[in-house]
Amino acid sequence: MHFLTRELVRQGIRRFHRMATHEGVENLPDEKYPMIFVSNHQNGLMDPMVISGLLKPQLHWLTRADVFWNPIARMYIIACNAIPIYRQRDKLPDLKERNEIIWDCCTKRLEKGAVLSLFPEGNHLSKKTIRNLKRGLSDLIGLAVNRSEKLMRLKVIPVGTDYEDYPGYKRRLSFRIGKEIEWRDLYDKQAKSIDYKKLTARVQKAMSKLAIDIRPAEMYDDLYPYVRAMNTTKAKNEAWSVILTELDRIAKSGENEKWRQEVSDAAKNLREYGFDNSMRSEAWGRDSTNLSKNKAWAVMLIPISWIANAPTAIQQYLINRRGDKIKALEFRSTLKVVSAMFIYPLSWTLIAILAGIYTPQFWMGFLGVWTWATFGNRFYGWLQGHLHDHRDALEGSRFWETEGSSDLRAAWTHYIKMIQKDINA
Questions:
Q1: What is the average per-residue pLDDT within 229-240?
Q2: Which residues pair with 343 in a beta bridge?
Q3: How far is CA 112 from CA 98, 107, 419, in A?
Q4: pLDDT exceeding 70 applies to what percent of the chain?
């Protein structure tokens, strides 16, 4: 079940998202080690699916306990290596005792070379920031090493995800694997525990190098349009380093009260001229030199993509319609991907069987329709990604060149200037 689910998940995330960046694979150890992966958590159940689908090791997930209450769900997620973790909000009288059992289970799995994965932020939030981390990781490592000295070999490896648009079909997704986080020097043999504050600081720093961390957090809404305009999911290698440097500069500038006030005033002015987060500042860029390239050729292929995607069109429409009705932004892509990864292959199989029945040779009809559905859907998705770029190019040109955008453009230019202002000047 785990193998089949993982294959469906891998297919699902690659069909739904547009994999722009997959970096840091060289940071994974060549030999088999007990490992714990730690990651930022912004996009509901999409995050664990992405991590499970893109990492090679089979992962054992620490999962909030209330997910296990449903007996059918419990059977399935246990088969997928999920381990319940009990929280204060569960309001159980024997919560501590239950978690002791869970820690023991984790230790035994790590001793056998298992790979655990968890979100040290503790919960999800659809914001591009690294929130304060819980102490679960340090407690787990301390207890594990206390119970088994062999686990001094344990490796803690950070992972970062960055979504261009959380629920958007064929929007870019970046995935990065960081270098091992050193923790052994923080283990106190006498206290039999890890220095929680120091480990948390190291983990937070490592994660902020792999995912977008907008700081100061209290200025998030004012800074968010600017960060989007940097097109972070397109960045690779040196371009990503430049973005991290810019984010650090913004965080440092945020310590200056005058800078904060000027940026807040500029952001308020921008909103007064009609800006809202439904507008794509990614298409505008920080100036007129950052525009996407026009891809008019993609428009010419639209009729072909409709034909290619015909076996999937109705299912796709219904799934998207249902997913877009979900109020929580961070669960829309989860519903779309999970629904599609089961419904698509089942519906293709039924259509292929019908085609086989009504053709002289069953397998010719069956394989022909199955191939059409599978590769046609891939072609449709590939083209949608390029059409997104084409629309962004048109939107960017319209924004910077048309007279009707002059007031908003002036407000945007002033907003960019205030954020980029040198506080030492």
A1: 94
A2: none
A3: 22, 9, 51
A4: 100
Read off the pLDDT of residues 304-359 as tens digits, 9 standing for 90 and up: 999 999 999 999 999 999 999 999 888 999 999 999 999 999 999 999 999 999 99
Whether the link from the prior residue into 120 is cis, omega within 30° of 0, is no
Per-residue pLDDT tens over the stretch 157-195: 999 999 999 999 999 999 999 999 999 999 998 888 899
Q: Residue range 294-300: average pLDDT?
A: 96
Question: What is the DSSP-derived secondary structure letter of residue 150?
Answer: G
Angle between the 313-324 and 332-357 helix axes, to the nearest 10 degrees? 160
pTM of the predicted model as reported, rounded to 2 decimal places: 0.91
Contacts with 16 (C-beta within 8 Å, 6 or more apart), sequence order:
169, 170, 333, 336, 337, 340, 381
One-letter amino acid at 295 equals K
Which of 227, 210, 333 lies closest to 277 in space, CA to CA?
A: 227
Q: Say if residues 395 and 304 touch (Cβ distance below 8 Å).
A: no
Which residues fall within 8 angstroms of residue 211, CB to CB, at 6 or more apart? Answer: 39, 40, 128, 130, 160, 161, 162, 176
* CB distance 338 to 45 below 8 Å: yes
Separation between Cα atoms, residue 154 and residue 177, nearest integer Å: 17
| Structure-token pair, residue 364 | 């010719």
Which overall architecture, per CATH, does domain 2-213 show?
3-Layer(aba) Sandwich (3.40)
pLDDT at 425: 64
Length of the chain counted residue by residue: 425
Say how far apart CA 71 and CA 74 lie, in whole Å.
Answer: 5
How is residue 425 written in tokens? 């000047």
Helix (H) or strand (E) holding 38: strand 35-39
Q: What is the residue type of 117?
A: S
Nearest-angstrom CA–CA distance, 57 and 116: 10
Residue found by looking up tokens 């970096």 in the block: 23
Please tell me the distance from the alpha carbon of residue 144 to that of residue 148, in angstroms, as a whole number.
6
pLDDT tens by residue, 400-413 = 998 888 999 999 99
Cβ burial of 134 (10 Å; 0-12, 13-18, 19+) is middle
Q: Can you give the residue ranges of every domain in the chain?
A: 2-213, 296-403
Distance CA(217)–CA(247), nearest Å, equals 12
